[in-house]
Amino acid sequence: MRSLIRTSVLAASLAAAGLAQATSVQVDFEIPRPDAERYAKPYVAIWAENGRESEHLLIWHLQGEKDKWLSDLRRWWRKIGRYDHHVDGLTGATKGAGHYSETFDVNDNWDKFTLYLEAARENGGRSLVKSKIDLSKGQSEYRIPAEDELGDILITIK
């Protein structure tokens, strides 16, 4: 009887530990180099939304006192940026053209959410793409075709 109870407690503990693991979302994306004389590195924001809740994942912008161009990331700015004073903990400097891969842990309480990527250049173009993500499907991939400021995007759920 004691052995059965110990086995049941161990099984329940392992199941709970499995549920507590964070879900990783890997985002592979390209920043294309436009045909322009004056090239400005884009600002990039990645975030997740679930109804009225949102979660910062990444923001690349000019590092400095007050960055007046952050509001060019229009959707991100209206939804999150103008309200959140803790952006600095998630930021990095702008990056030039190339391929990038970022991995994030997302809120395990969200079975379904929308992942947003937004890129904007100073005095330039802007792209906003999104993909509905369903974590209940387990490991999966989502593809988003290229736009002006963002190349092809691959989202991998692990």
UniProtKB/TrEMBL annotation:
Keywords, in A-Z order? Signal
Q: Which InterPro entries match?
A: DUF2271
Q: Which residues form the signal peptide?
A: 1-22
Report the domain of life of the source organism: Bacteria
Protein name in the entry? DUF2271 domain-containing protein
- Species source reads Marinomonas aquimarina
